[in-house]
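Deviations from the work plan: none for this task. Representative record:
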Amino acid sequence: MKRLLTGKLFGILIPLIAIFFGFLAGAIVMLFSGNNPIDAYVALISGIFGDIYYFGETLQRMTPLIFSGLAVAFAFRAGLLNIGVEGQLMVGWFAAVVVGFAIELPMIIHLPLAILAGALAGALWGTVPGYLKATLEVHEVIVTIMMNYIAMHVVNHFIRNNFLESGQRTEFVSPSASLASDFLSGLTDFSRLHWGFFIAIAACFLMWFILWKTKRGFEYRSVGYNKNASLYAGMNVKANIVSSMAISGAFAGVGGAMVGLGTYRYVEIFSSFTNLGFDGIAVALLGNSNALGIFFSAFLFGGLKEGAGNMQAQAGIAPEVVEIIIAMIIFFVASSYLIRWIYSKVQPNKKEGK
Amino acid sequence: MEYVIEMNGIRKEFPGIVANDNITLQVKQGEIHALLGENGAGKSTLMNVLFGLYQPEKGEIKVRGEKVNVTDPNVANRLGIGMVHQHFMLVQKFTVTENIILGSEPKKGMSIDIRKAAQDVAEISDRYGLRVDPNSKIEDISVGMQQRAEILKTLYRGANILIFDEPTAALTPQEIKELIQIMRNLINEGKSIILITHKLKEILEVADRCTVIRRGKGIGTVDVSESDQTSLAEMMVGREISFEVEKGPPKPGEAILSVKGLTVEDVRGIDMVDQLDLEVRSGEILGIAGVDGNGQTELVEALTGLREAKSGTVTLSGEDISGKKPRKVTEAGVSHIPSDRHKHGLVLEFTIGENMMLQTYYQKPYTRNGILDYGKMYKKAEELMEEYDVRTPSSMTLARSLSGGNQQKAIIAREVDRSPKLIIAAQPTRGLDVGAIEFIHKKLVEERDKGRGVLLVSLEMDEVLNVSDRIAVIYEGKIVDIVDAKETNENELGLLMAGGKREAGETST
Amino acid sequence: ACGNDNNDNATPVNEGNNNEGNNNVENNVDNADNNNDNNEGNEATGDGEGFSSKMVTDVGGVDDRSFNESAWAGLTMFGEDYPGAEVDYLQSSDSSDYAPNLNRLARDGTDITFGIGFLMEDEIRDVAGQNPDQNFAIVDTVVTDEDGNMIDNVANITFAEHEGSFLVGVIAAMHTETNEVGFIGGVESELIKKFESGFKAGVHSVDPDIEIATQYAQDFNDASLGQQIADGMYAGGADIIYHAAGGTGNGLFTEAIDRRESGEEVWAIGVDQDQALTEGEWSEGNVILTSMVKRVDQSVYQVSEDTMNGNFPGGEVLEFALEDEGVGFAETRDNVSDEAIEAANDYRDQIINGDIEVPQTDDEYDEWYDSL
Amino acid sequence: MELFLAVLYLIVPAAMIAATPLLLTAMGGLFSERAGIVNIGLEGLMVMGAFAGIVGTLMFEGMGMGAWSPWLGILFAALLGGIFSMFHAVASISLKADQIVSGVALNFLATGLTVFLVREIFERGQTDTISSRLFRTNVPLLSDIPIIGQMFFTRVYLTTWVAFLLVLVVWYVVFKTPFGLRLRSVGEHPMAADTMGINVNRMKYIGVGLSGVFGGMGGAVFAITAAGNFAGGTITGQGFMALAVLIFGKWHPFGAFGAAIFFGFAQALSVTAQQIPGLQDVPQVFMLILPYVLTILALAGLVGKATPPAALNTNYDKGSR
Ligand SMILES: Nc1ncnc2c1ncn2[C@@H]1O[C@H](COP(=O)(O)OP(=O)(O)OP(=O)(O)O)[C@@H](O)[C@H]1O
Ligand SMILES: Nc1ncnc2c1ncn2[C@@H]1O[C@H](COP(=O)(O)OP(=O)(O)OP(=O)(O)O)[C@@H](O)[C@H]1O
Ligand SMILES: [Mg+2]
Ligand SMILES: [Mg+2]
């Protein structure tokens, strides 16, 4: 059964079918609550594609999701479950913004430096669980969960005591460290689309490249699948665990930097988690932990969340319905076995022919 | 007819393959019936059908003449069929008793009556001479004892038809002897046994009749008393097989590996290798013989840099490699064929091509400036697969879906191709059929003849005797003696392995 | 709950350009011009026909039993009084929804769009900049452009929470038996500091020796944390605790009810709305002594109405204070003694005529306390 | 000394109360993970439990059950949690879904569905507040023991002691009964269990179902004792903490008990310390991160490696090996 239907085509078909089922489930929920699903979905679609502004916002929204998805997926490929993307993203956001306003430099240095600061902060936050896992075999899931809370409180502490500007936030990053783009914004009718979107695309490429084209990536995947055999093959398993968590954290940190330098251009006291990191788990898994898949699943996530606003405005559908749809899509993607099974029942001659 | 088991015209398909094609197997009451076939011939599948784990597409099963429908292992249990699986079905963290009673636990109120259970187990193990400690955890006991626990599981359920799927693959010679005795006891108690093994000698020793299958098809059933090794092997493979390892005399050169005063602890801090000295010369195969658990694993791990030695030195052609990391040891010229190919030898989710490059991926020309060249990697892997006869649909096939023999060939190709100075081969033929074994032994001898040193660690007495030039016997972490392979025999080795001493004057280094 | 007889209650003050609020003549002149521009073409009829007033909620949603709900109540009331006017809201699931939601309303040509909550400050600034022909209003903060100037198409609605908190502080001080009271804050910020400072000043106005325990949960949503903090404060001797901590405050009520049931005489003070209407019940009454109420409903109603009538207070800071009845203590007064009410009313008058200036920050409070 | 005791009298019950929902939920996680199914969906189960606990209490109040309502509400939450967990069970057992993915989906579904239902039922984003509550009580007799009594048996919720008793029950069931042996065997070596005639999938369904029952109770206890009502933010992260407690406790009921108490203690300390003279001047951030840092330190220092059930996070497929 296992390798029965693993054609390329099926790889694409399954998510599409899952998305269809997800929407079907959402429609049932809406019917149950006395709403018209067709109106709702028309509103949803036009809330993504109906106006260039919404489309721009969708792309803006998916930017950090791509990063958090990449972060989760990268660790996953190396055999680690990184639930700490949330915290890594927060510290990255914070560090990038602080570098963004605290120093004066020409843009060509300042912007990369601020992004780098985000990457380093995220990497640092990822290294702690990586190191504990590698040296003391402490389960990374616990440490990353704890590190999320620590990140939130520590960042808030520094904002509150060192960088508070107005109300809840720091000052704005200087233009030389800003990713915001009048051009992109103008192109999309004032959406907050910024250059970070293209950096995110580059990051997808980078993740694919690291994992599949470099020596290190080969080792990460090898360690992820089988630590023992990797050790026997002479790989430094501990170093690989630590550095894969660092890279994962760096992806998350840069994701935070994108939000900090592009969307908001400041960082404010976090009164709760951003959820960007937790959503990353779903984005990564929905995207099957591969770069292209993550890009599309981030688009789906970003689009659904953006379109939810229009569904609410035009069709009066509570935004929670979108969450239900997302959940059902994830279920159906995860249960692709079901889809394969149905498929094999529907087309029995195909099976015989093999 | 007094058949206890009749399987007629069994057909079992897996996607893309017919594992059993119209196979017939008839087992008489009170006999040991051997089932023989190459790796992947369909033996385990047939037995799993009998035991109710798989449902056949065609065919009928009769137990004691009655047609039955074995839908799941519970049905098999009720019919008195028990199975000792090829890969042990034991829960590592449970005790022997817990494993045995699992699924039919004696109860006292709502709890398990663990006392009664232990008593029952002790009673059965006494009756059949199956020595076990009912209260130890599986993960703490030897493979032999684990197997006895497996057998007890079936007996506890009152099985009188027992299936043994490759029971001897992982046992020491001593344990094999005990097992054979146990099987005889069982027959005397009126049970019937189906025995799967690749070791023809064992079949000849204990079995009454033997059914041979090849690529899913039944070839026939013979009386063992009218057969010999050659005829059985031919039936199974369809060609002639040589059992003697063909090799010329060794031309030993200077020492390649020399180990001095090596002491290695295991995780518990016990010295498993204790002040050990050893030398392997170029152009010779040095076999390490010993009962499992006498420090072989720790020795190999220390030599290959996987485990840190407490003291002592290891030199390779004069270069001190003690305390070096695995990669450095490899680069110094040591190759390692690990004993557990799934756990240590392969990344099963990688393609077979990637697996073949697991030791060299980082070197030029496969990696330049940290960037992999997959084209070159696969080209190389395909060359190797060609040369070492690794049979798979393509180099992109996942390692998991290769048969054991082909997996092992891939590892050998990978390790040997690097032109190492020293090859450490740990149990290189475990679980393989005679064809594959022949191939691997031939390769090791070839490498010897190219002037390499080969350190062969094996629990298989035949293998050590046939392949090695010299044999070092390890006992409690020390080399107790080194003998010339041509001048020793099974009995002498067995004695040494048990810690005995050779009579003086027979030395030949 | 919202009368429409208080159209001119709010006092426009100018807080821009660092000159502490009072005189605003110049700005008003500018704004007047602007307002006319803005309202050209959508002059509403008497019943509000053709006028639309909508809001974007904070993550709490329009039924958060707090300021979002209050704001929506004001809009609903406005819609009832002017049936021709269109009122609506958009709910934000998280902070990333603010900008798109505000934009969505602006794009629909909404005449006035309210951003509820100071968290929307920057989004309002951007969206207002991008839609200069639309009117916006923000609740709980003041939005300025990058140079610190007021923005012509944004009205700023603030409340004198410190003044309201002062009064409940007075009531607490009048009621405490143990001479110790407490304050639980949510996530520490400038806004919540106003509650704290005002409350402490109110307590100490009555009796400077009363001890005040304060603690920030640094979370607006963790009831169990709120309960633990309250437990500690009550155990430490406080018998009345005031909260400005949203959902965390539920834990305070839980703890107060619990202690009540076991015979302890403790009280809690609610915030934003008359919380005794929905919370605090125990078997023999209600543990909520009083609540500091903040009339967001009234402010939203009023700004909508003004805008409809062509008087959009763009570029202004409207501070709804005690004297406008924009803040105060709750209508439910069953548990409050007459003396306390009297004292509170007395202080209220003093604050209104300027005899008392209530501190809003830690520094102002320290200064104020030293001057006692 | 007196102060020290006074602090302990405050912290210990607080720790026990804080530990209760985590502990209950971790017991749920234990059943599912011992059966080999990773349960990252504990968060969602707690959300569902909190929702059902409050809605159930309100419902039973309406039916005139009075003081029994919260208890019935907790049972209702257990039931609903069990039903809700079947999503995870069907996906990860029958449909062979990746267990982590399915758990993540469960979390999404729980938040979406509960808030949606709250809107449908109450026409607002949060439920009404329950009026019949659970109160802290002194455990009769035991609370009279000097020092110990005041520390452990005074002003605690009955739910806490019920939860502690349930830990004992869980231990007994998992380690002393045939059911427990079978459950564990399925999580360690499903094929072995299968050959012994154990219905592997049924055991897994039961394991996941019990995780729903206990996770539901955990969420309900939290909502009923602390919050008093339910909204989208009532449960934020407690389920993940419970997962951490389970792993910290090495998948053992007593271990999880220790871990939950440890965490509750650290949290109570962090809250209370801010009201203790001397500690008041320590910057608050140190107190806020204390529970998390202590947990990491404890793991790194004392507990170290935890070995999960051997077959955790693998799908059992008869046909494969
Ligand atoms: N679970 C399975 N899924 C798919 N194919 C299988 C499965 N199990 C067995 N097969 C197929 O059935 C054939 C027979 O396998 P089986 O395990 O019965 O061989 P065997 O004779 O026991 O080999 P060995 O001597 O190595 O144990 C294999 O070649 C394989 O192709
Ligand atoms: N799950 C599977 N799906 C498809 N084919 C399989 C599967 N498992 C095994 N095979 C096929 O079965 C054949 C033999 O497998 P099998 O595991 O019996 O070999 P083996 O020599 O017994 O290995 P081992 O020594 O590990 O027991 C191979 O050709 C392999 O392609
Ligand atoms: Mg095999
Ligand atoms: Mg087999």
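Chain A has a mean pLDDT of 90.
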